[in-house]
Amino acid sequence: MTATAQDEDVCFHCDAEVISEHTRTNIDGEFVCDDCTTLHYLQCDNCAHIFRTLLIVEDDSESLCDDCAAAAGYHECLDCRYLVLGRSRCTGCENERRGCWEDYVYGAGYKPYPRFHGDGPLFLGMELEINTPDFDTQLCQLCQDRIDSLAYLKEDGSISVGFELVTHPMSLAWAQANFPWGLLDELAARGCDGDDAGLHIHVSREAFDGHSHVFRWMKFIYRNASEVQQLARRHDSSWAQFSQLERAEVKDICKGDRDRPRYSAINVQNDETFELRMFASSVKPREVQAALAFADASVRYAHQLTLRAIVREDGWSWESFLAWTADRPEYDALSRECEALACAC
Fold first, then answer.
1. What is the dihedral of CA 111, 113, 117, 123, to 10 degrees?
2. CB-CB contact of 217 with 151 (8 Å)
3. Cis omega (within 30 of 0) on the bond before 329?
4. C-beta separation of 184 from 286 below 8 A
5. Residue 166 vs residues 91, 115, 148: alpha-carbon distances, Å
6. % of residues, the chain, pLDDT over 70
7. What is the DSSP letter of 141?
8. pLDDT reported for residue 174
9. What's the rounded Cα separation, in Å, for the pair 86 and 121?
10. Domains defined along the chain, listed by start
11. β strands within 149-216, DSSP E
12. Quick one: pLDDT band at residue 308, thresholds 50, 70, 90?
């Protein structure tokens, strides 16, 4: 939406009246008042125009828009979004890369700037723990060739020999179409597995329409703990507990209480995401696809779940959820996995 003669004296964000000749415009030519400029925008240090996001030079000396960064000869680090000159990676990311196995596997504390793939606001980030037969750099090279900039490998304290494959945030549709699913078959053929390891899925908090949406989502998962654990292929895990206390205090969690145990079925400690920790790891594509589909479907199901549906149509039930997903082709992997596991029984 661009400014027109009819709305040129109104802020695009808050509808406050503005004086057009003394008011800033964003990149789309929309008028933005001073208050909304502070709330929603950043100013490029070079051109002084305002933008929703900027790129940062690796020494934090400047924040630049895409055009100014390109004009100055900068490009993004291959592993994060810092701007660098004359090198493929920033100093911090280069230091994380060590010789041999460590050339490919970052330290456990590595956390690059997220790159979002697909359409939001519901994004999923996957952490897939994989056991390898030995410290085989060819396996790492295989993964790196397949995942490119979509994901990275890092160490995890719960894995003796292996790595954690961590994706950048993806929409479900994007993941289904673009994640290199064949890589999992290749890893399995080379002796890798997910035995006694975990699959964690981060769900963006921005996907939730307020506290009541979060409440319905968490209640649905905790009320159906048995079925969820059957789908997750992991029961009574100390790494992802379905605590009665957590279930009872969901209302407090929804109101912002993040001082909760990390090793809960739903970890709420993170600022930007909720983390589903209950899934067992796997190198079988359908099992991983089903986990991603459940994360997406449960959020969307809870969003449309009305009080009438809960009270009169048994909306909390697992059967109602499966019936809802069965009508949506994007959740086919979830439906097929539940049929295979007889989750509906």
1. 60
2. no
3. no
4. no
5. 21, 12, 12
6. 93
7. H
8. 97
9. 35
10. 124-341 (3.30.590)
11. 151-154, 162-167, 198-204
12. confident
Helix (H), strand (E) at residue 67: helix 66-71
Question: How many Å apart are CA 294 and CA 2, to the nearest integer?
Answer: 38
Residues 6+ apart with CB under 8 A from 174: 117, 118, 119
Q: Which of 221, 212, 216, 220 is nearest to 241 (CA)?
A: 221
Record the tokens describing residue 195, joined without a space. 């035995």
Is residue 137 a contact partner of residue 188, using CB atoms and an 8 Å limit? no
Give alpha helix (H) positions in the chain: 34-40, 66-71, 91-96, 137-147, 172-178, 182-189, 211-223, 225-232, 244-248, 250-254, 285-304, 307-312, 318-326, 332-341
pLDDT in tens, 75-122: 888 778 899 988 777 877 766 554 467 778 888 888 898 999 999 899
- For residue 82, which amino acid is it? Y
Q: Which two tokens stand for residue 225?
A: 């703990």
- Going by C-beta distance under 8 Å and a sequence separation of 6 or more, which residues neighbour residue 271? 205
| 3-state class percentages of the chain: helix first, strand second, coil last, to nearest 5 | 40, 20, 45
Q: Residue 328 is encoded by which pair of tokens?
A: 């949506």
Query: What is the rounded distance in angstroms from the CA atom of residue 265 to the CA atom of residue 237?
Result: 9
Q: Provide the angle, in degrees to the nearest 10, between the axes of the packed helices 285-304 and 318-326.
A: 100
Cβ–Cβ < 8 Å for 198, 239: yes
Tokens 């290749």 belong to which residue?
Answer: 186
The three-state DSSP-derived secondary structure of 304-322 is HCCHHHHHHCCCCCHHHHH
